[in-house]
Design goal:
The complex is a heterodimer of chains A (about 120) and B (about 120).
Chain A: E1 4-7, E2 10-13, E3 19-25, E4 32-38, E5 44-51, E6 57-58, E7 67-73, E8 76-81, E9 90-97, E10 107-109, E11 113-117
Parallel strand pairs in A: 2-11
Antiparallel strand pairs in A: 1-3, 3-8, 4-5, 4-9, 5-6, 7-8, 9-10, 9-11
Chain B: E1 3-5, E2 10-14, E3 19-21, E4 24-26, E5 32-39, E6 46-52, E7 59-61, E8 64-69, E9 74-79, E10 88-96, E11 105-106, E12 110-115
Parallel strand pairs in B: 2-12
Antiparallel strand pairs in B: 1-4, 3-9, 5-6, 5-10, 7-8, 8-9, 10-11, 10-12
Classes of the chains: A mainly beta (about 120), B mainly beta (about 120).
């Protein structure tokens, strides 16, 4: 149980284009999902917290107009990187908090999406 | 403010050796959860364990064991008889257990290399 999927697993795009990353909780409902960014050989940096049916809460320094987050249902959150530039190239990981079954308050992570902007 | 310190950046051991990964944390919260996650080269973070601050019992799961000591604010992780498949980056993390406080504070991770 507690499986989180991400799609795509990797994407290469041209500078100036937008990229959408999907995060799904497959076997549980997640009222809260999180988006992280990870640079090589570094820890995870929280970008934003996404609550179903409400606006995302962004961490300081994260541009909300650039990283659009939509949490449309209890099993799906999307991150759209708008007008991507090479400096946005990174490994993006989502996590989902189990709403009620099993280990509540535990975040389960997706496999990550590697974004490369040319 | 919360902080998680994993002082060991990289560790190398020979297969079948035991290895302990250290984790020290700081928090002002009276109740909290501690976690360990494993990140293999594929990138996915795999949940290993969650420990409630109320529960100081050590836990063993197969070759893995965890030693939680609230007095020293430590939550160390031991792998017994290490295997090559244990090679990964291991993250210790902390979150308050109060309502609405779900954000994880991660340590910087310890890269474990198990040499055959």
């Amino acid at each position: 149980g507690a499986v989180v999927s991400q799609h795509p697993s990797w994407v290469i795009c041209k500078s100036g284009t937008s990229v959408k990353i999907e995060c799904r909780s497959l076997d549980f409902q997640a009222t809260t999902m999180f988006w992280y960014r990870q640079f090589p050989k570094q820890s995870l940096m929280l970008m934003a917290t996404s609550n179903e049916g409400s606006k995302a809460t962004y961490e300081q320094g994260v541009e909300k107009d650039k990283f659009l987050i939509n949490h449309a249902s209890l099993t799906l959150s999307t991150l759209t990187v708008t007008s991507a530039h090479p400096e946005d190239s990174s490994f993006y990981i989502c996590s989902a908090r189990d709403r009620g079954g099993g280990l509540t308050d535990t975040q389960y992570f997706g496999p990550g999406t590697r974004l490369t902007v040319l | 403010a919360q902080k998680v310190t994993q002082a060991q950046t990289e560790i190398s051991v020979v297969e079948k050796e035991d290895v302990t990964l250290d984790c020290v944390y700081e928090t002002r919260d009276t109740t909290y959860y501690l976690f360990w996650y494993k990140q293999p080269p594929s990138g996915e973070l795999v949940f290993l364990i969650r420990r409630n601050s109320f529960d100081e019992q050590n836990e063993i799961s197969g070759r893995y064991s965890w030693n939680f000591q609230k007095s020293t604010s430590s939550f160390n992780f031991t792998i017994t008889a290490s295997q090559v498949v244990d090679s990964a980056v291991y993250f210790c993390a902390l979150t308050p257990s109060g309502a609405g406080s779900y954000q994880l504070t991660f340590g910087k991770g310890t890269k474990l290399s198990v040499i055959p």
